[in-house]
Q: What sequence folds into this?
C-alpha cells in the first residue's frame, strides 16, 4: 500500500480537519445583517415616537422614572460614581487602549473594527442629537450634563463599546466558561450606565432605550461588515 494512504496518515489528516473545523466554528458566528436591520427598524420607530412626543413615550418615561427615582444617599453615591464610566472621555481612552492593544496583538482587522465602529456610532449620535433637539429633564441634575437629550450619549457609547467587547470575546476567547462570564459582565455595563443616567435626572428613560437600540444596531451591522470583509474570507 502506498505510504501516502496508510491508516496512521489518514487518521492524522482527519484529526487535522476536525481541528480546523472546530476552530472555524469557534471563530465565526452567523451573519448579523438581518438582526442589525431589525434593531435599526426598532430604533427608527422609537426615535419617531420620541420626536412626535407620543403619549406612549410620556407614560413610559413617567413609569420608569417613578420606579427608579429615590433619595437614598448610598444609591446617589453609587450612581454618580458609576455614570462616569460612560463619559465620552472615559470611553475614548478605553477605545484607544483597546485599539493599541489589538494592534500589538496583530489583530489589525479587529482594531480598525473597534475604532471605526466607535467613531461612527458617536458621530451619528451627535448628528441625531442636533437633529432631534430634545431638551434634558427640567429637574435638578445630580451630575453635570450639557447638550441635547436624545439619544443618551452614555447609552450609545457604552452599548457600542461593550458590544464590541462581547464580539471580541466571542472571537478571541476559546474557553466557553470565560466567554459566558465575560459576556455577562460586558452586557451589564450598558444597563447600569443607562440606569445611572435616569437616576441622576440627566436623561429620560426613552433617551436611554434609544441609545441602547442605536448602539446595538451599530454593533450588529458593524460586525456584519467585519464578517463579510474579513472573517468569512479568512475561514472559508
A:
Amino acid at each position: 500500500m502506498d505510504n501516502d494512504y496508510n491508516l496512521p496518515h489518514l487518521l492524522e489528516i482527519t484529526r487535522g480537519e476536525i481541528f480546523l473545523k472546530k476552530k472555524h466554528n469557534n471563530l465565526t458566528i452567523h451573519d448579523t445583517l438581518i438582526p442589525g436591520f431589525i434593531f435599526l427598524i426598532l430604533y427608527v420607530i422609537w426615535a419617531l415616537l420620541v420626536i412626535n412626543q407620543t403619549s406612549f413615550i410620556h407614560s413610559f418615561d413617567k413609569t420608569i422614572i417613578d420606579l427608579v427615582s429615590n433619595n437614598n444617599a448610598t444609591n446617589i453615591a453609587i450612581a454618580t460614581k458609576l455614570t462616569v464610566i460612560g463619559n465620552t472621555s472615559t470611553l475614548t481612552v478605553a477605545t484607544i487602549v483597546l485599539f493599541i492593544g489589538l494592534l500589538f496583538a496583530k489583530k489589525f482587522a479587529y482594531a480598525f473594527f473597534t475604532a471605526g465602529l466607535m467613531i461612527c456610532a458617536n458621530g451619528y449620535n451627535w448628528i441625531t442629537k442636533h437633529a432631534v433637539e430634545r431638551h434634558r429633564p427640567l429637574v435638578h441634575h445630580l451630575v453635570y450634563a450639557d447638550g441635547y437629550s436624545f439619544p443618551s450619549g452614555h447609552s450609545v457609547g457604552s452599548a457600542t463599546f461593550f458590544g464590541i467587547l462581547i464580539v471580541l470575546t466571542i472571537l478571541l476567547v476559546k474557553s466557553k466558561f470565560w466567554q459566558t462570564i465575560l459576556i455577562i459582565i460586558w452586557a451589564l455595563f450598558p444597563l447600569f450606565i443607562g440606569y445611572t443616567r435616569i437616576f441622576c435626572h440627566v436623561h429620560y428613560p426613552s433617551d436611554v432605550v434609544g441609545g441602547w437600540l442605536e448602539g446595538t444596531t451599530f454593533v450588529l451591522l458593524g460586525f456584519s461588515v467585519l464578517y463579510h470583509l474579513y472573517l468569512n474570507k479568512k475561514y472559508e
Notes: The chain has two domains: 1-30, 31-234.
